[in-house]
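Students often ask why inverse folding is considered easier than folding. One informal answer: many sequences map to the same fold, so there is more than one right answer. In these notes we will look at a single instance of the problem. The structure comes first.
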């Protein structure tokens, strides 16, 4: 019984230490852009235009909800801001 308890505790300690050591990742932010809001959305054209211009995924969405008007909404990865300049104190 005590051997099982010790081995269970050791396994939990190893698991927690791996979780603490693993690097933190940042998820890529997603942006949305309405493409040609004045025209009726055609799904094939919407997806093609979205992929060509923003390398994203286009879908037709009711606008306003409950109407028969659809706009092309393009979801894509937001551009990442440039990294801050490195402080170089060596001259």
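Output (designed amino acids):
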């Amino acid at each position: 019984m005590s051997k099982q308890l010790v081995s269970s505790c050791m396994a939990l300690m190893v698991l927690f230490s791996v979780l603490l050591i693993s690097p933190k990742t940042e998820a890529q932010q997603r942006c949305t852009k309405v493409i040609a809001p004045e025209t009726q959305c055609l799904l094939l054209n919407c997806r093609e235009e979205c992929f060509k211009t923003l390398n994203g995924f286009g879908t037709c969405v009711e606008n306003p909800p409950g109407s028969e008007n659809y706009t092309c909404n393009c979801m894509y990865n937001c551009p990442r801001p440039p990294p801050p300049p490195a402080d170089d104190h060596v001259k």
